[in-house]
Design goal:
Layout: H1 5-18, H2 27-30, H3 48-52, E1 73-74, E2 87-94, E3 106-108, E4 111-115, E5 121-125, E6 131-135, E7 157-159, E8 162-166, E9 171-176, E10 182-187, E11 202-204, E12 207-210, E13 222-227, E14 233-238, H4 251-256, H5 264-268, E15 270-271, E16 278-281, E17 286-290, E18 294-295, H6 299-302, E19 314-318, E20 325-330, E21 345-352, E22 355-362, E23 368-373, E24 379-384, E25 391-394, E26 401-403, E27 414-416, E28 430-432, E29 437-444, E30 447-449, E31 480-487, E32 492-499, E33 507-510, E34 514-518, E35 523-528, E36 534-539, E37 549-553, E38 556-563, H7 567-572, H8 575-582, E39 592-598, H9 623-636, H10 638-641, H11 665-671, H12 688-710
């Protein structure tokens, strides 16, 4: 490892000098006693200076992105292209969860700090995997339906003896790093509205930065800064205007107000939530955050008179002391497709046109890779990194994408790429400064966008303004994913590694010439960073969507990753995402922290097997009720139980559920008998007729599945030519 090389050189030099000389009899006694290795510095010693210099402390993983630049690059190189085939499991830690795991583990002072479903925090010994403490914030189960994309959490922040976590129900909690005992807690949202927190907090200049989600259901986005010591609110920046009849909170919002029309946005919320990307440049004293989609998605409903709708789908540069807006760049003006710009932001220094530039890089959902001057927000370049059909290119004079004819779906349903899941979603990229490459977990998914003609705001429900049944129109064969090694200077792919499906894990780049990534089909791999060749791959028992981190302890390098299938595609992807667990051996979803090292020989505990065998239900089904049930199901159920009634393997597949076809269905759905497990009480929104129609629709889908299972195998599936 790089920092050990001077000691290695000294040892070699001493050995060379001793060649040919006989060791004196008392050499052992004469040798000075070797000082014990200093204990690794813990969270108590994490201060502003240490966070700024995080890249020079590769033995730790101090922040969500590895450092303020969020490059997710480690200079550790004990694990490299020549020996990575010797990698094995050092230990695993069971989170006892069955929902998505998205956290990047922090590693400080020999302790791993990570999170699981429902915002539970774990502190684990980084050498043995033994639990030190566990903190359960007791998120009310009725919060689950407010989370558009699973009850996930992306991790914690550490500072001056505290571990900070944002909880799904909108609280920010400071924990004692040694014990996990809460030190302070603040409610950061209006808990009567469908706000959630899934992002990892960041600490910048003594302030905890936190945003929120919920735009699909209808909220107004903002980012807040809280004092790390006391928990007091320091500042808050709203990302979209409020009631136009009232004064706006700051001059930036007054400037944004003319870009909105109508009265929908402030009644529903407007959107623009800050739910993931944060980066910080200490030299420029600029805090960068990404903002989300509009609420509703459909701009004709949201802002019927037109307008860019600032600051939706934008990158904002703020002063960390005050929250003042310095500059903004809007990646998708008048966003119409849920093309958020909250995706991972990376800061780097690049040479462009022969000149050194301090840049900001992002691959947001809309499919373009952006390189901006991070001091001014000037667009330096933009090029699509995946296939897109909603725009032809980004105009370098205006900085605006040039929309195609099919981008507008006001009058007819249009099949468009990327889908609302994006060409790239929250799964973090990484940047290797030696090779100059960004490693993007990319998706290739089309989506049928159709305007909801009679939009009515439904408190507690999805309010995106799209026909809820259109997503079922996309053939599963048109869904895939890949890892792209992207040259941000040339704006082109150096290499691409295809995957059988999208929604693969975030990436980690190391000085050992490697990229680490987990996959949706249930593996964890090390890939040659220069060529894209897979050098090592191991089963994980479930799909992996989180990004790894790496650390060193007692002279050994470790790589840690959270394995647990879920998130947006894991819920709605149907049989396409079901393959995540079937491809991992037909296992039921089970969340774990997996930690690898050279020579590791531990084994993942045996996992429970999946079963989807069903029999058909006899009787004629009224086509009108099937059609009505299709609409009602996709209005109320699909975002948890899967598009087309095909579960992604995270929550129950209703086609195979005994409860669904029992007398318990009404009490569960309409009376909330499974509220403690996160199943909402829907009687306040759904009618009994809708539930009856949904039962008919699911029966039809069950019978289709039974027919598929009963069909004789084709020659190809039977092993024929």
């Amino acid at each position: 490892m790089k920092r050990a090389q001077p000691l290695m050189a000294l040892a070699i030099a001493i050995g060379l000098c001793a060649c040919g000389q006989q060791e004196p009899p008392d050499a052992a006694a004469a040798a000075p006693a070797q000082a014990p290795a200093p204990a690794p510095r813990g969270v108590d010693a994490v201060d502003d200076a240490r966070l700024v210099a995080a890249a020079s402390e590769p033995e730790s993983w101090l922040t969500y992105g590895g450092g303020y630049a969020e490059q997710r690059y480690s200079t550790l190189d004990a694990i490299h292209t020549g020996n990575v085939a010797q990698l094995g499991l050092a230990f695993s830690y069971d989170t006892n969860t069955t929902r998505g795991l998205e956290a990047t583990p922090l590693v400080i002072g020999g302790v791993i700090y990570t999170t699981g479903s429902w915002s539970i925090v774990y502190a684990v010994d980084a050498k043995t995997g033994k639990e030190i403490w566990r903190y359960d914030p007791k998120v009310p189960p009725e919060t689950g339906p407010k989370a558009c994309c699973d009850v996930v959490n992306r991790g914690v922040a550490a500072y001056q003896g505290k571990i900070f976590v944002g909880t799904l129900d909108g609280r920010l909690v400071a924990l004692d790093a040694k014990t996990g005992i809460p030190l302070w807690e603040k409610v950061t949202v209006d808990q009567t509205r469908p706000y959630t927190i899934t992002m990892a907090p960041r600490v910048v200049e003594g302030k905890v930065i936190i945003g929120n989600g919920g735009a699909e259901l209808g909220v107004r986005g903002y980012v807040s800064a809280y004092d790390a010591a006391s928990g007091e609110l320091v500042w808050r920046f709203y990302t979209v205007p409020g009631d136009p009849k009232q004064p706006q909170e700051n001059p930036a919002l007054e400037k944004a107000l003319p870009t909105w029309t109508g009265d929908t946005w402030y009644e529903i919320g407007g959107g623009g939530t800050v739910w993931d990307a944060v980066a910080f440049d200490p030299e420029l004293d600029l805090l960068y955050v990404g903002t989300g989609n509009g609420s509703p998605w459909a701009r004709k409903i949201r802002s019927p008179g037109g307008g860019d709708n600032l600051y939706l789908s934008s990158i904002l540069a703020l002063r960390p002391d005050t929250g003042e807006l310095v500059w903004h760049y809007q990646t998708t003006p008048a966003d119409n497709w849920d093309y958020t710009a909250v995706q991972h932001i990376i800061l780097a220094d690049l040479t462009i046109d022969g000149q050194p530039r301090k840049v900001l890089m992002q691959a947001p959902k809309n499919g373009f890779f952006y390189v901006l001057d991070r001091a001014t927000g000037e667009l330096l370049s933009a090029k699509n990194y995946v296939e897109i059909t909603w725009a032809t290119h980004v105009d370098m004079k205006t900085g605006r994408p040039v929309e195609t004819k099919i981008a507008n779906y006001d009058d007819a349903t249009q099949v468009i790429k990327p889908s609302p899941l994006g060409g790239h979603n929250w799964q973090p990229m990484s940047f290797n400064p030696q090779l100059g490459l960004v490693y993007i977990p990319a998706n290739d998914i089309a989506w049928a966008f159709g305007l909801e003609k009679k939009f009515v705001y439904r408190p507690g429900g999805w309010n995106n303004g799209n026909d809820p049944t259109t997503g079922d129109a996309i053939p599963r064969k048109d869904v895939s994913g890949r890892l792209i090694a992207w040259d941000p200077v040339k704006q082109e792919a150096r290499w691409q590694l295809p995957y059988p499906q999208p929604w693969n894990g975030g990436t980690l780049a190391t000085a050992g010439g490697l990229v680490f990534q987990g996959s949706a089909h249930g593996t964890f791999a090390a890939i040659d960073a220069a060529s894209g060749k897979v050098l090592w791959e191991t089963p994980t028992g479930t799909g992996v969507i989180a990004a790894p981190s790496t650390y060193e302890l007692d002279g050994e390098q470790y790589v840690a990753v959270m394995a647990g299938w879920g998130g947006a595609f894991g819920l709605v992807g149907g049989d396409a995402s079901q393959a995540a667990n079937e491809g991992a051996g037909g296992n039921k979803n089970s969340g774990r922290l997996l930690v690898y090292k050279l020579g590791g020989s531990a084994q993942i505990p045996a996992l429970e097997k999946l079963s989807r065998e069903v029999s058909a239900i006899a009787g004629e089904l009224d086509p009108a009720h099937v059609k009505a049930g299709n609409f009602a199901y996709h209005r109320w159920c699909a975002f948890c139980h899967g598009v087309g009634a095909q579960s992604g393997g995270v929550l129950p597949d209703l086609r195979t559920s005994q409860l669904f076809f029992s007398d318990a269905l009404g009490p569960i759905v309409m009376e909330g008998q499974l509220l403690s497990k996160g199943m909402p009480k829907l009687s306040q929104w759904m009618t009994q007729q809708e539930l009856d129609d949904i039962r008919v629709y699911i029966t039809a889908k069950r019978n289709e599945l039974a027919a598929q299972q009963a069909a004789p195998p084709t020659r190809a599936s039977a092993g024929g030519n």
